[in-house]
């Protein structure tokens, strides 16, 4: 008897479900960053607004990477519903706290898919996920560094203006 | 094209899993499965079989059993972009679920066997 399921798809139904959940997570992240960009712009933090616009773009690219991978492997990629995006923030700092939370949650979620792939010996998907693991180093670093600016610069006086200026300059260029 | 037969063509199909209530066969030539259940033999390709599984697994049998309303005890299994629809009683749902569970275990076992026998270099 032919193994019809394996012929049709490289990834298992379980990995496919997890990858589709990740597509949704990345789409959600992209929308959250867009809301952050709007809030920052409305409140005069233009550099941070630009930073979040860029982040939103990146998350969208990640979403498409997952989406196309599912399709290329013979799976069914599902275009996600995204709702419940927080539009208002109580403070400038809260925006960055939420951004870091978001990145941590994405990292954990990718680790979870990685664990499932190891369990199934799906090394092909693991190899695909390696790129994202490396990317998360950068994403978490940037989000953590932004929060750090609140500590080292301080919010008093022109502090927030100074923080905003520096957010645009955050870079991660580790070659390791 | 709707393919519904009344009797299984067991000479060209391979048994995947069967109970007293029904059976699932695989046709290697057509790359599909035939589900013999509720008085018909229906053809399912890979995507539709997965959709059927999802639709049947999503029926909350326990909730249906505990329901005290006088609504008829009937569930419609409609699968988007698939040629077949099932209108089943709760007992039939339980029977179909059993068949599908067995089917997917057998398909998984087949994958393991194929891996061990033909795909992995010893």
TrEMBL record, chain A:
PROSITE patterns: FERRITIN_LIKE. It catalyses: 4 Fe(2+) + O2 + 6 H2O = 4 iron(III) oxide-hydroxide + 12 H(+). Pfam families: Ferritin (PF00210). Its EC number is 1.16.3.2. InterPro entries: Ferritin, Ferritin-like, Ferritin-like_diiron, Ferritin-like_SF, Ferritin_DPS_dom, Ferritin_prok. GO terms for biological process: intracellular iron ion homeostasis; iron ion transport. It is found in: Cytoplasm. Keywords: Cytoplasm, Iron, Iron storage, Metal-binding, Oxidoreductase. Residues 9-154 form the Ferritin-like diiron domain. One of its GO terms (molecular function) is ferric iron binding. Its main location: cytoplasm. GO terms for cellular component: cytoplasm. Iron-storage protein. May alleviate iron toxicity in the presence of oxygen. Belongs to the ferritin family. Prokaryotic subfamily. This is Ferritin. It comes from Mucilaginibacter phyllosphaerae. The lineage of its organism: Bacteria, Pseudomonadati, Bacteroidota, Sphingobacteriia, Sphingobacteriales.
Automatic annotation (TrEMBL), chain B:
This is Uncharacterized protein.
């Amino acid at each position: 008897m032919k193994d019809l399921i394996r012929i049709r798809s490289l990834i298992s139904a379980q990995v496919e479900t997890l990858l589709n959940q990740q597509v949704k997570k990345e789409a959600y992240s992209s929308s959250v960053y867009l809301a952050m960009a709007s809030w920052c712009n409305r409140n005069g933090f233009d550099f941070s607004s630009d930073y979040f616009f860029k982040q939103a773009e990146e998350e969208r690219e990640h979403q498409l990477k997952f989406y196309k991978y599912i399709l290329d492997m013979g799976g069914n990629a599902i275009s996600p519903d995204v709702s419940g995006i927080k539009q208002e923030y109580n403070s400038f700092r809260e925006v960055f706290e939420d951004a870091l939370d978001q990145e941590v949650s994405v990292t954990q979620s990718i680790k979870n898919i990685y664990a499932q792939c190891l369990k199934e010996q799906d090394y092909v998907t693991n190899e695909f996920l390696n790129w994202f693991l490396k990317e998360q180093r950068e994403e978490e670093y940037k989000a953590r560094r932004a929060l750090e600016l609140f500590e080292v610069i301080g919010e008093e006086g022109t502090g927030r203006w100074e923080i905003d200026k520096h957010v645009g300059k955050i870079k991660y260029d580790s070659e390791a | 094209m709707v393919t519904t037969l009344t009797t299984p063509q067991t000479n060209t199909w391979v048994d995947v899993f069967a109970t007293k209530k029904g059976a699932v066969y695989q046709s290697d030539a057509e790359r599909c499965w035939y589900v013999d259940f509720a008085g018909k033999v229906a053809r399912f390709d890979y995507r539709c079989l997965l959709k059927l599984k999802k639709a049947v697994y999503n029926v909350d049998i326990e909730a249906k059993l505990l329901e005290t309303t006088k609504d008829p005890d009937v569930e419609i299994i409609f699968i988007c972009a698939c040629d077949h629809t099932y209108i089943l009683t709760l007992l039939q749902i339980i029977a179909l679920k059993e068949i599908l569970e067995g089917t997917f275990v057998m398909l998984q076992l087949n994958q393991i066997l194929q891996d061990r026998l033909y795909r992995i270099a010893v």
